[in-house]
Amino acid sequence: MAEERAFAVVTCTAPVNIAVIKYWGKRDDDLILPINSSLSVTLHQDQLKTTTTAAASRDFVEDRLWLNGKEADVGHPRLQACLREVRRLARKRRGGSAEDAAPLNLSYKIHIATENNFPTAAGLASSAAGYACLVSALARLYGVEGELSEVARRGSGSACRSMLGGFVQWQRGERPDGRDSLAHQVAPETHWPELRVLILVVSGEKKQVASTAGMQTSVDTSPLLKHRAEVVVPERLALMMQHIRERDFEGFGQLTMKDSNQFHATCLDTFPPIFYLNDISRHIISLAHRFNAHHGRTKVAYTFDAGPNAVIFTLADTVAEFVEVVRRSFPPATNGDQFVRGLPVGSASLPEELLTAVVMEPVPGAIQYILHTKPGPGPQPVDDASQHLLGADGLPRCRS
Ligand code: DP6
Fold this sequence. Notes:
Blueprint: E1 7-15, E2 17-21, E3 26-28, E4 33-34, E5 38-42, E6 49-57, E7 64-67, E8 70-72, H1 77-95, E9 109-116, H2 127-142, H3 149-153, E10 167-170, E11 183-187, E12 195-202, H4 211-221, H5 223-245, H6 249-269, H7 279-295, E13 300-303, E14 310-315, H8 319-329, E15 340-342, H9 352-358, E16 367-373, E17 380-381
Parallel strand pairs: 7-9, 15-16
Antiparallel strand pairs: 1-6, 1-17, 2-5, 3-4, 5-10, 6-9, 7-8, 10-11, 12-14, 12-16, 13-14
Residues 19, 22-24, 32, 38, 125, 127, 156-158, 211-212, 305-306 line the site of ligand DP6.
């Protein structure tokens, strides 16, 4: 048996994903098993990512966690479930043939620090990237490899899809123990090079019903959700995979919009009803339809999760024109220079017919900013030790 290490530290990054066939509703709340399969696009970490450092030491006296620099509760049941599962896999691996050069004692306490490179207040889904990153970092710390989407799923359902890049399906599975409820890559991030994503961050109210509680009420009360899970999603999933395989934006975009709309319809069908879309979200929906109607085909497709922010899928050749349409429709209130972030956006001058047909009454300040990104890879290890969020003492590094 090799000598045990007294201290180990690793860092990983993980991406956000956005579903085009939505997950909404569990058949097992504890194991986080969904009532239907779902499909998502993993977004590029150059624009949106979580970074997590995990350290284990003989000298740590308790498990500790820091979220964006602030100490947080490490006892959260979902976090504990992920930790337990990764340690179980590590034990299993050690019991087998694979022998670690310098095994890490599984009873050492751990310190975890995690940070997002985007404002949490922006209401962008952070739990998927967060749990995918936590599980990737813990697995690396303990030398566990292979299928980890099952572990990430225990943190947050949508997190299992952030364990892979590109286009990802989360198969609902059939088994009561969830061993077959896993994420699979449908196509890598290089599959559709022209595909772009614009996140329209809507200003204002942040108070919403959390997804976990919302979907529970939906499962209990919405007959539409039951029909969706049993009949609609299986058909749509097969279709969506075909559109992706064929890089058919017309089909992909239409189905993305329909599925977002049906998800929000199940929210309205929930009793008492849940509202995630607001007036600005609805403005964006109408704008997208007018834009497509003007062009006579689907050039942009919207989708919304459990909040008012819009995610727009489009192709590279449409980005500049649509961003200009959004700027005219929702003129930036302040710092107009920061209105478009992420990947560069070229300038576009809009033809008069387009302006008249698409831009109706402008709503100043309704959109805080637009983030331009594209599909990207799954979690990545960070080997540069200067990037660790925890210092050699196992405490968060002071950052400038
Ligand atoms: C609307 O994964 O956040 O974004 O499993 O309870 O943690 P829990 O829920 P979560 O739900 C995401 C719901 C959604 C749709 C989706 O991402 O598929």
